[in-house]
Design goal:
The complex is a heterotrimer of chains A (315), B (239) and C (308). With 315 residues, chain A is mostly helical. Chain A has one domain. Chain A is built from 14 helices and four strands. In chain A, the strands form two sheets. Chain A has a two-stranded antiparallel sheet with strand order 1-4. In chain A, a hairpin with a 2-residue loop joins strand 2 and strand 3. In chain A, helix 3 crosses helix 10, helix 4 packs antiparallel against helix 10 and helix 11 packs across helix 13. Chain A is globular and about 55 Å long. Chain B has 239 residues and is α/β, with parallel strands linked by helices. Chain B is 36% helix and 25% strand. In chain B, the strands form two sheets. In chain B, strands 6-7-8-3-9-10 form a six-stranded mixed sheet, with helices on both faces. In chain B, strands 2-1-4-5 form a four-stranded antiparallel sheet, covered by helices on one side. In chain B, helix 3 packs across helix 4 and helix 3 runs parallel beside helix 5. The radius of gyration of chain B is 18 Å and the shape is globular. Chain B starts with 6 loop residues before the first strand and ends with a helix. Chain C has one domain: ABC transporter involved in vitamin B12 uptake, BtuC (Orthogonal Bundle). Helices cover 72% and strands 5% of the residues of chain C. Chain C contains twelve helices and four strands. Chain C starts with a helix and ends with a helix. The relative contact order of chain C is 0.21. The chains are: A mainly alpha (315), B alpha/beta (239), C mainly alpha (308). At the A-C interface, helix 5, helix 11 and helix 13 of A face helix 4, helix 9 and helix 11 of C.
Chain lengths: 315, 239, 308
């Protein structure tokens, strides 16, 4: 193992151990927040694979998040699934939806790609409203505590919920770390830098982008499914444009194209919004200001700056 | 010409919005030969080569590689068959380290430790100093970026190496190194070279094809081309 | 009411929608056409126009027509000024890079929307129309005594709605005249055709960009002032105009002004008529899918030629 690999494993493993340790010391409020942040950070990790590493800016990831959430929630509610198969249903829903959208949207590039993903996600959101009879539209529906027992573990219990969120986050973090260091991930980075050159090195760039979008969408869907299961609720707002903008914001803030960035960005933005929503109902103002300031002054984000200034080896 | 050609084109043509860039080009490259493609600016050299490696879709005609018709294949599959293309305008991955640039080119055919070996060999072969391997490619001088571009072609161990103006922007000593390198490659690798520097062409090419106005004006050994009056008038005289 | 008069009524309502939509979408198309900027905050400029109109009407007082006339001047100017300032402080610094610009305008969207929520509040507030006579409309029907003119109950419109349609036509004609005939229009078209060439010919491209971005926003604000007596001002009212303008601009040929107007009329009219038969949500689903599919399968539009 090279010293660099050892350093990378120590850093990321250290973070996971720290999060495990926090389980025992955090006061209830922050304990609950952190569980939520870890699930949302997993969503951001999924987003980062497409945006940060492949350089494709999607404005429609809420479609995948919601596909996972409703794939899980609807099968529990109407098909009587237990949580494990319901999670799998959410994952599969994300896989199918992201493969479908990838095949359409990847025929376009740049700005058109952004608008196409935005439009299809919007159509998905409106469809959830349209089928309000089953989805309960904006109001959403609660998944009863009794139906959230996974292998005898009560997922509505705060400790179990925290540990489940940590498990999801660990899996997503490890997966993304492995992916970006593997040949496949390195080709994705090269596509971000110069797609035509990658093609002229003999790689099928379209197939790589397709793969990236499916992996990205499926991770996002898994995060959506787990979110719905852990917090016992599914609602149309998770499919709205806002939930497509959030992962973009988190990843931009934390550092696009870094493994730790999605977590850092979600953590900071969550608490920024949490603090400001205590002061005003217009808490999305913070998100707006952050988007503008980040694009103007720090397109690299937190972890990106860290890499540029201190740790050149940060993956 | 001995044996079946490695690369042939028949009636290859391209027009953009009514402008005929390349017209009816028939080309045959024998295995192991070094062919130079020369001609004035706008003669259609880059377009012709673009059609051969799949960057540009031809309006008419066919491309054969190793006996098979590859006209319908996309660029990446042609590269997979053993072509390599180096860009006229250096097109390295600026943000990535030099070694990662080469590793990307090598990993399509190699795995594991073999990639690192091939990368080090390619660096040494084009004469890039080893200690720049960790730098971002965008930080290299222009001449070094050209050499990296060339090394990215070599590391693929291609059967056909297509070089688009490889010596542009190189110093005299680097050009001498380049000539020596092509001399070593010749025989094992077939080379198609677009080049403006006539000293390079005359020194390294086995045969020369002269393109003018999108058509083949002349085709022959360096000595024949040198004697050819039409070429003198069209190209050498003005060049 | 029978179907015939009902559809006439729907078309009249649709014509009002189309008129307002045409103004809003032309603003978006102008910005995209000249600057190649996709402005996601366009709907918020529309919303600001409506909110400022309410504020002006409140402040001026007196006869509704006075406040409305003042709003008609002040709101577009104020919104145009805000937009031009945003262009100079934000978009210019991003070098109009397409993707970063979109992210920044999303930020701008939230900033404008949330600042409005903080100051204007979450209520929906009406602005009184300057005039509002009811106009009943006749319908021809084949009755017992042959063809006869009848006045079906509920078939009618208001003088104000007709005035909105008229005003939109006048403004659109003005925009067209400016682009086609004036020196300013020539400068804009030159900048659109080739930015670098325009710079070389001494055209102050930066100022043209700020002006165009301001004008695009002002058109949206003007459209909002016209509609606010019919539809109340609310801080979230920007979403629908944004979506509809996108649809119109994309279907209308991405930046072409006549195409945009034609598409606006088509979408505005059909929106009115379709909502007679379908639920509005279903109509929106179809519309968004349509836009997505047009971009996927007809990428030779202006978006598609900008390969990066």
């Amino acid at each position: 193992m090279s010293p660099e690999t050892r350093r990378i494993l120590a850093l990321h493993g250290g973070l996971l151990l720290l999060l495990l340790g926090l389980q025992f010391v955090l006061p209830a409020y922050h304990h609950g927040n952190l569980a939520r942040i870890m699930v949302l950070a997993s969503y951001a990790i999924g987003y980062n694979i497409l945006f940060g590493y492949t350089g494709l800016l999607s404005l429609g990831h809420a479609l995948f998040f919601a596909a996972g959430m409703y794939g899980m929630a609807l099968t529990i509610q109407y098909a009587g699934f237990s949580p494990a198969p319901a999670l799998l249903a959410g994952l599969l829903a994300g896989l199918v939806v992201s493969a479908g959208l990838a095949m359409l949207a990847l025929r376009t590039t740049g700005v058109a790609f952004m608008i196409v993903t935005l439009m299809f996600a919007q159509a998905g959101y409106l469809s959830i409203l349209y089928f309000g009879e089953y989805t309960r539209g904006d109001e959403g529906f609660v998944i009863q505590t009794a139906r959230r027992m996974l292998w005898g573990i009560d997922l509505s219990d705060p400790t179990n919920r925290y540990l489940a969120a940590l498990l999801l986050f660990s899996v997503c973090l490890a997966l993304s770390l492995w992916l970006v260091r593997a040949p496949f991930g390195r080709v994705l980075v090269a596509i971000r830098e110069n797609e035509e050159r990658v093609q002229m090195l003999g790689y099928d760039t379209h197939a790589h982008k397709l793969g990236a979008m499916i992996v990205s969408g499926t991770i996002s869907a898994l995060a959506g499914a787990v979110y719905g299961l852990l917090f016992g609720y599914a609602g149309a707002s998770f499919a709205s444009v806002q939930y497509s903008i959030f992962p973009l914001l988190w990843v931009l803030l934390g550092g696009a194209g870094t493994v730790l960035g999605p977590f850092l960005g979600t953590l900071f933005m969550f608490y920024l919004i949490d603090l400001s929503s205590g002061l005003t109902t217009a808490y999305m103002l913070i998100a707006g200001v952050a988007l503008v300031v980040l694009t103007l002054f720090a397109p690299q984000g937190l972890a990106g700056e860290l890499r540029r200034r201190l740790w050149g080896w940060l993956p | 010409m001995s044996g079946a050609p490695l690369l042939s084109t028949r009636g290859l043509s391209k027009h953009f919005d009514g402008l005929q860039a390349v017209r009816d080009v028939d080309l045959d490259l024998a295995p192991g030969e070094a062919r130079a493609l020369i001609g004035p600016n706008g003669a259609g050299k880059t377009t012709l080569v673009g059609m051969i490696c799949g960057r540009i879709t031809p309006s008419a005609g066919r491309v054969m590689f190793d006996g098979a018709d590859i006209t319908p294949l996309p660029a990446h599959e042609r590269i997979g068959l053993g072509m390599a293309y180096t860009f006229q305008i250096t097109s390295v991955f600026h943000a990535l380290p030099v070694r990662e640039n080469l590793a990307l080119a090598a990993r399509r055919r190699l795995k594991g430790a073999a990639v690192q070996d091939a990368v080090e060999r390619a660096l040494a072969r084009v004469g890039l100093p080893r200690d720049i391997g960790g730098q971002a490619a965008g930080n290299l001088s222009y001449g070094h970026q050209r050499l990296l571009e060339l090394a990215m072609g070599l590391v693929q161990a291609p059967r056909l190496l297509i070089l688009d103006e490889p010596t542009q922007g190189l110093s005299d000593s680097e050009i001498d190194g380049f000539k020596a390198l092509i001399g070593e490659l010749k025989g094992a690798t077939t080379i198609l070279l677009i080049e403006h520097n006539m000293s390079v062409v005359m020194d390294v090419a086995d045969r020369i094809t002269v393109l003018d106005g999108g058509t083949v004006l002349a085709d022959g050994t360096p000595a024949e081309i040198h004697e050819n009056a039409a070429v003198q008038a069209a190209y050498l005289g003005t060049g | 009411m029978e179907l015939g008069p009902y559809i006439l009524l729907a078309s009249l309502e649709g014509a009002v929608t189309a008129a307002v939509l045409a103004l809003t979408a032309v603003g978006l198309a102008l910005v995209f056409g000249v600057m190649r900027v996709v402005n996601i905050a366009h709907g918020e400029f529309f919303m600001l126009g409506a909110v400022i109109a309410w504020w002006v009407a409140q402040t001026v007082g007196g006869h509704p027509a006075i406040g409305f006339a003042a709003a008609l001047v002040i709101a577009p100017l104020a919104v145009g000024g805000i937009a031009a300032a945003a262009d100079m402080t934000i978009l210019k610094r991003l070098n109009y890079d397409p993707e970063r610009t979109i992210v920044a305008t999303i930020g701008l969207l939230y900033i404008l929307q949330q600042l409005t929520l903080m100051t204007y509040g979450p209520e929906a507030r009406p602005v009184e129309a300057p005039f509002n006579q009811r106009i009943a409309l006749p319908w021809i029907e084949h009755g017992e005594s042959g063809w006869q003119v009848i006045w079906p109950w509920g078939l009618g419109t208001t003088s104000y709605k007709l005035a909105v349609i008229g005003a939109a036509c006048v403004v659109l004609a003005g925009v067209w005249l400016m682009m086609a005939r004036s020196r300013l229009g020539l400068v804009m078209r030159a900048t659109q055709a080739d930015r670098d060439m325009a710079l070389a010919f001494g055209i102050p491209v930066e100022r043209v960009y700020a002006l165009v971005f301001g004008m695009g926003a002002a058109l949206a604000a003007l459209a909002a002032v016209l509609i606010v007596p019919i539809q109340q001002a609310h801080y979230l009212m920007g979403a629908d105009p944004l979506l509809l303008s996108f649809i119109v601009v994309i279907i209308g040929g991405l930046g072409s002004l006549p195409g945009t107007v034609l598409a606006a009329v088509l979408i505005g009219l059909s929106d009115g008529i379709i909502s007679v038969f379908f639920s509005p949500t279903l109509a929106k689903i179809i519309a968004t899918l349509l836009v997505g599919l047009v971009l996927v399968f007809r990428p030779e539009g202006l978006f598609g030629t900008r390969r990066r």
